Structures are given as structure tokens and as C-alpha cells.
Amino acid sequence: MDIADDEAVEKGVAHILATCGRIDAIVNNAAVNLRGSVEDVPMAEGREIMEINYFGTLRVCRAALPALRARKGSIINIGSFAGSIGTQFGGHYAASKYAVQGVTESLRRELAPFGVRVTNISPGFFRTGMSENIVVSDSMQDGAYAERFSRFMKNADKFMKNMTTPEPVAALVQEILESRNPKGYYFIGPAYQRAVLLAKRLLPQTAFEAIMDRVLE
Q1: Which family does it belong to (predicted)?
Q2: Fewer CB within a 10 Å sphere, N or C end of the chain?
């Protein structure tokens, strides 16, 4: 179903209920990634990212919640490493994933009395269809950020070629679905990415940003 379309989501959920009679769990995994500067990316492109990554997740949750309450089911929202750290030229994607993390925390508290388990998984960098098909805004072909952006994307391409495939994330999803009392938040990724998250919490902001800039540029 098209998660950016209200009617498509409602029809999709209705079809599942008509076919299977129940919904035990949903995993919101669909997303797109957009690269470009916050200043240059057109507002329409920024809205599209939010429409899919955030509002798409919200649509599916809202449409499925009556059935999930009836089954005391589970919701797993797939966030991102970018939902904790906003990198340069990834602001719109980061904003959408920060939003997913926030609404997941709220849903967890609201649905706990109904026995519905709600979890956010924030994967680090894995090689997926999305990572191999990142949308680059046409606005970045020239302008004040063009040189830095070109250098950033070259480094990002090299980095993505070394990423592992996402089977560990799938295994974690299964583990959570089989758990009677899963946590509200899980990060899964290489040890150095865990270290980055820890560094953000512990280091002065200027020091942390200086390190990130050197690594990414």
C-alpha cells in the first residue's frame, strides 16, 4: 500500500482484516532518504520526506490500532541512527526520524494500559535498498554548498560500500515480537556507532561536532 495516501492505508488494513481476521503486529519500515542542505532543498521535497517517513508511519499506526488493541498486539517503528544525530546534508531525513522516535515514545505510554507493546528500533548504517537509492536533491548541483556537498557524497559512497546487510535488524525484530515485555528503544549497529552516540552525550557539543565534521568531510 502507499503509506503516503490515507485511503490506500485504510484499504490495506481493511484487506488484511477481511483476509486474516486480525492484526497481531505492525512493523513500520518503509522510508526514503534525501540528501541536500537544509537551505537549498525545496520545501516540497522536505514535505515529501516527512509525508512518507513520519506521517506514513503515523497513518499505519492509526489505521491498525483498533485491531491491535483487540489483540494486545505490537508496534515496531524503525527509526534510525539519524534520529539521534543530525548530520550535515541529511537534515530532512534526520528530522523525520527524530519525529518517529518522539511519537513512538508517546504511543508507548498511551497504549500501555491496553497491553499494546510499542518499540522503536534505531539501526545504525546497513546496506539496504534505501541506502543504495538515496535521493539527491537537484538543488545541490550548484550554490554555496556545492563543493562541500560533492566531497561529502564521495565519502558517503565509499562508506556505504562497506556497510553490512540488515539481517541483524530482522533478527532483532523477531526477538522483540516474541518478547512479552520489550524495551521501548533499541539501537543496533557496529560498536563504533554506539561510541558516537555515547560521545554525543558526554562530550561538549563543539568538540563532538568538530569530530563528526572531520569524519564525514
Answers
A1: Belongs to the short-chain dehydrogenases/reductases (SDR) family.
A2: C
Task: Judge residue 128's burial from the number of C-beta atoms within 10 Å of its C-beta, 0-12 exposed, 13-18 middle, 19 or more buried.
Answer: middle
CATH architecture of 6-216: 3-Layer(aba) Sandwich (3.40)
- C-alpha 46/C-alpha 84 separation (Å) is 19
Spatial distance between the Cα atoms of 69 and 24, rounded to a whole number of angstroms: 9
Hey, CA dihedral for 189, 194, 200, 206, is it positive or negative? negative
CA torsion, ordered 154, 159, 161, 165, to nearest 10 deg: -140
Give the pLDDT confidence of 91-104 residue by residue, as tens digits: 999 999 999 999 99
Cell numbers at 4, concatenated: 503516503
User: How far is the C-alpha of 2 from the C-alpha of 79, rounded, in Å?
Assistant: 19
Give just the sign of the alpha carbon dihedral 173, 179, 183, 189: negative
Q: Which pLDDT tens digit goes with each residue over 50-77? A: 999 999 999 999 999 999 999 999 999 9
Measured distance CA(60)–CA(12) in Å, rounded: 9
- Cα separation, 141 vs 207, whole angstroms: 30
Predicted TM-score (pTM) above 0.85: yes
